[in-house]
């Protein structure tokens, strides 16, 4: 038996044995995204009666529901990017706390001792290779950095996890690991639904398409709309597009398979799409497996605005919840209710503006329907009290709704208000103009129809 196989045999234990090292008041990282453990989570939750105030940290909680969250006295659940599941759990009364992040800094948080010290890291990974390495799968993120400084590392090995080529910091060696737990063979990657673009999504994407040229490098953020842009790009006649992103989504599979995206004109990572996590369908995970077209990197690389800024013609496309007449962007909360997170939005908004001929687009549908079915504007005079400003006004480049794309960069307060009102649904424009007048950001000569 080789040395690494011998080490594997020594470290391979049951989930119960592995999580027995967790103590009350420990800080425990669950792998982010698809790195969330399942059998180790169940085994840890089963100890709820003997544990108190174990801090769990993760990001983007995907199904299945983590068991630990059900025992709030024993575990304090932190999510660095709320997902739909986190929202549902929180609104049903289970506590989940948000932790704001500037994502490109996450690996340095661990390496520079900024983050709370992690006692234990528990992460789902791929099976070990013959050299003793476990590929981290589609979530390099800050995973290796958190493992480096933790007192103990537990790996939950999932046969179904795609092996994701890097890049860097995409694997961990058996010598760096304390326990290995083999997940049951039927533990599968979570197949997330891919939303079909709505008519509004298509109209928004249509306003961005004129800004994308052959050779542009594309980042698509989380949410339904960026995915729509990817689908429309795949159906276009653009060529030699590049990709460089935080999140790999199904849209990248469409753009790569259509041949529109080949990374041929990039200054580095030629022919590859760097990403730091992936969330999507089974089809996407199968595409990623051992595929050099997509490259796993830590967030300190993918999201570093200095790296992004070196790629000419960078086009960053992200989604928001609301915009106000000052052009402040809220992409994460509704009043004091946390909906999502700032994640890597700032990184890409700024990086794209540091790129030669680069552009950042922040997109939103102009309206939504409330629970009674009434049409409401997402273009607000002012953000509601308690709402979070994800991108402050001086950092906003383009804002896009189904009514157009308008640039804020370089514009005054009255001009921003005028442009933003032009992006609102016509039913709300008169009221927004009155509000802009009362706020002192409207000129009488401004266009009445904005
Ligand atoms: C990973 C990366 O994204 S890369 C870097 C960029 N990072 C980011 O941009 C992070 C911030 N952005 C985001 O998290 C997302 O893009 C969001 C939340 C802004 C939009 O994501 P989507 O999945 O398209 O959200 P969606 O439009 O479904 O809205 C989320 C929820 O808020 C509700 N909602 C949205 N806008 C409003 C509004 N103005 N008023 C009331 N409710 C609203 C929706 O109904 C939905 O409710 P649900 O809990 O029933 O699902
Ligand atoms: C941890 C941040 C992840 C995101 O941007 O979604």
TrEMBL record:
Residues 280-436 form the Acetyl-CoA hydrolase/transferase C-terminal domain. Its main location: cytoplasm. Its EC number is 2.8.3.-. It holds the Pfam family AcetylCoA_hydro. InterPro entries: AcetylCoA_hyd_C, AcetylCoA_hyd_C_sf, ActCoA_hydro, ActCoA_hydro_N, Butryl-CoA_acetate_CoA_Tfrase, NagB/RpiA_transferase-like. This is Probable butyrate:acetyl-CoA coenzyme A-transferase. It catalyses: butanoate + acetyl-CoA = butanoyl-CoA + acetate. The active site is at 246 (5-glutamyl coenzyme a thioester intermediate). Coenzyme A-transferase that converts butyrate to butyryl-CoA. PANTHER family: ACETYL-COA HYDROLASE (PTHR21432:SF20), ACETYL-COA HYDROLASE-RELATED (PTHR21432). Keywords: Cytoplasm, Fatty acid metabolism, Lipid metabolism, Transferase. Residues 7-184 form the Acetyl-CoA hydrolase/transferase N-terminal domain. Pathway: Lipid metabolism; butanoate metabolism. It is an enzyme of class 2 (transferase). It is found in: Cytoplasm. It comes from the Bacteria. CoA binds at residues 221-225, 321, 344. SUPFAM superfamilies: NagB/RpiA/CoA transferase-like.
């Amino acid at each position: 038996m080789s040395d690494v196989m011998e080490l594997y045999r020594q470290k391979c234990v049951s989930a119960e044995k592995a999580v027995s090292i967790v103590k009350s008041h420990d800080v425990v990282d669950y792998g982010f995204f698809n790195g969330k453990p399942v059998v180790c989570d169940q085994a840890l939750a089963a100890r709820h009666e003997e544990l108190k105030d174990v801090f769990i940290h993760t990001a983007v909680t995907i199904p299945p529901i983590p068991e630990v969250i059900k025992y709030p006295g024993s575990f304090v659940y932190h999510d660095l990017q709320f997902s739909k599941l986190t929202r549902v759990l929180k609104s049903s009364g289970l506590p989940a706390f948000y932790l704001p992040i500037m994502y490109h800094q996450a690996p340095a948080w661990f390496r520079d001792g900024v983050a709370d010290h992690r006692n234990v890291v528990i992460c789902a990974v791929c099976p070990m290779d013959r050299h003793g390495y476990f590929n981290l799968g589609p979530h390099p993120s800050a995973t290796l950095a958190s493992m480096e400084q933790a007192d103990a590392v537990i790996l939950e090995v999932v046969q179904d996890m795609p092996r994701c080529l890097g890049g860097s910091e995409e694997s961990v060696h058996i010598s760096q690991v304390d326990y290995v737990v083999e997940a049951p063979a039927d533990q599968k990657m979570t197949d997330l639904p891919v939303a079909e673009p709505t008519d509004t999504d298509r109209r928004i994407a249509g306003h961005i398409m004129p800004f994308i040229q052959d050779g542009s490098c594309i980042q698509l953020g989380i949410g339904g709309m960026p995915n729509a842009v990817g689908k429309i790009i795949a159906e276009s006649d653009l060529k030699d597009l590049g990709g460089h992103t935080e999140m790999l989504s199904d849209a990248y599979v469409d753009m790569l398979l259509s041949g529109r995206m080949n990374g041929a004109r990039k200054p580095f990572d030629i022919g590859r799409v760097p990403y730091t996590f992936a969330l999507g369908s089974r089809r996407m995970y199968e595409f990623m497996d051992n595929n050099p077209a997509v490259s796993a990197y830590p967030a300190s690389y993918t999201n570093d605005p200095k790296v992004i800024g070196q790629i000419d013609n960078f086009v960053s496309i992200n989604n928001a919840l609301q915009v106000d007449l000052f052009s402040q962007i809220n992409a994460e909360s509704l009043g004091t209710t946390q909906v999502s997170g700032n994640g890597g939005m700032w990184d890409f908004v700024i990086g794209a503006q540091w790129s030669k001929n680069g552009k950042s687009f922040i997109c939103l549908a102009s309206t939504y329907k409330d629970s009674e079915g009434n049409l409401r504007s997402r273009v607000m005079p002012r953000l509601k009290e308690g709402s979070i400003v994800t991108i402050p006004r001086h950092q906003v480049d383009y804002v896009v709704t189904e009514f157009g794309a308008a640039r804020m960069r370089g514009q005054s307060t009255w001009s921003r208000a005028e442009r933003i009102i032009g992006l609102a649904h016509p039913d709300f424009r008169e009221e927004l103009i009155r509000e802009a007048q009362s706020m002192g950001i409207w000129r009488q000569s401004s266009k009445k129809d904005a």
